[in-house]
Each structure stands twice: as structure tokens, then as C-alpha cells.
Here is the input.
Amino acid sequence: MSIIVQKFGGTSVGTSERIVAAAKRAVAAKRAGHQVVMVVSARGKKTDELVSLAAEMSSTPPAREMDMLLSTGEQVSVALMAMAVHALGHKAVSLTGAQIGIKTDSTHTKARIRSISTDRMRRLLDDGNIVIAAGFQGIDEDYNITTLGRGGSDTTAVALAAVLQATACEIYTDVDGVYTTDPRIVPEARRVSRISYDEMLELASLGAGVMHSRAIEFAKKFDVPIHVRSSFTDIPGTMIVAQPEAETPVSGAALTRDEARITIAGVPDVPGTSWEIFSRIARHNITVDMIVQNVGQQGKASISFTVPKN
Here is the structure.
């Protein structure tokens, strides 16, 4: 029996009505003969609310405790989703990242997945359950709860689809597919029915908000077909696959509003200096986007780069 992974973002589970609508999609897939794993994000602005609560306690809360706190948002969502599926007459079990067996490194708030155990999920699926997994979180070798950072629920969904060898990973969001640019800014933007991993990775890296680049990297590495769809309509959406829509590459424009530019002036214009700067940044798991280096003058240069504001 084929497995389908369905991921629902915060907007898609923001109200009780939307949770029920998402549950109905999962039940429909189960009735169609699939085994179903749902990956669910925290509801609406819940994560922002938790961050605000932490700020009331400390201006610099420990990263470990932030992960402990933020992981509760997804736990609320998966429990409510399991209740909704049960109310529709189907078996469901909610699981945290730790209960699934998502093992990560110990980089709190920006952890990387190291391994995923499929034993428990497969037993539950074979017993007729819809498995509802908390996105965005895992556990390190010392049993500390970790979170995966920006796009963590997307990454969770694609990673689960990869290890379970799912037929597809369906990403349900508040838009009905991938557009050549943000349709809220450019009304003439065109929805793409099919796009390659490389094209989508470029758009995601430049700030397209539909999916995070780390999830696309996972999908490309393990050849996981991704279907981006709206939670609120039945429009077909966009398939992200190895082969693009046509021989002509997709042309698009992406916009990000949450980037900060950092400029380092007076950098010695000698080989290896840039490597030293960015390797130190990488050790802290900070994602660097665009890099611009000017032509050196009098043996000195300036390097500018962008990073997420948070």
C-alpha cells in the first residue's frame, strides 16, 4: 500500500474549522487506499506567542529552553488533529518528533536531522492509523528536545517521505502553488504546474516563501516528489520534481523582507580571508544568502552579505 505524507502549515490549522478540513483531506486519502502520515505545524501565530512569552522572562533565554518551549506549539496541533480524525470515524495517533525517532544534532533552534527511525510509524500505519507527526522538532543523543529552525516542518515532511519511501509529499499551504513571483505584489504572476528541484531551490534560496530551501535540498537528494497545494481550494497546484515543466527554464522573481545586510570593511585582499570569515559563520549554523565583495583598494576590500534577521 502506498504512503502519502501530507504537511499542513500554521495557517492551514489556524482554526478549529481548518483543522477539521485538513483531517477530512487525510481521511479522503486513507479511503482512497493510501497509508497517510500528516505533518502539522503550530497553529497560526502560536510560535510568535511563545517567543513573546519567553521574552517576558528573559531577553536572552537559553536556546535549549527555547526549544523546549517552542516544541509545545506543534504538540497542541497534532493532538487536536488526532481528535478531529477520530471524530470522523478513523484511527489516528499523534507523535512528537522524539516519539517518532527523529534524531538530530545538538544545535538548539537550528538542529539538523541525522537519522529517523521508521519502525513505530510503520507499525501504526499497518494497524490502520493515520499517523500525525509534529513538525519542526526532534531529539538529540542526550534526549534534549531540538527544533529545526526556519522551514522545519517542511523539512520534517520531506524527510519522513524520504525514509518511508512515500509516493509523494503534499505540502498544503495558503497559496495554490508556486508562482513566478508573489501574486500579492505582481497580479500578473503565473502559477507553474511543474518545476524542477533546482529551479525551486533557486527561488527558495532567494526568498520565495512557499517552501524552505533545506526541504528542497532533502527532496532533491532523495528524489521525493513534492505537490504544493492550497488547503482551501481544489486547484491542482504545483509539482516539484526532477524534470522541469519544459525545456525552457522557469523564470521568476523572489522577495524577502526579513534579511539583514552586514558589511565588513578593511578586509585584507589576500587568498583565504573570505573562507576564514564564512567558515566561522558556518560553525554557528548561520545561513548566508547573497555575498558581494568589492574590488580591493590598497590591499583592502569590503565584503557585504545578507543573513536572516532572526
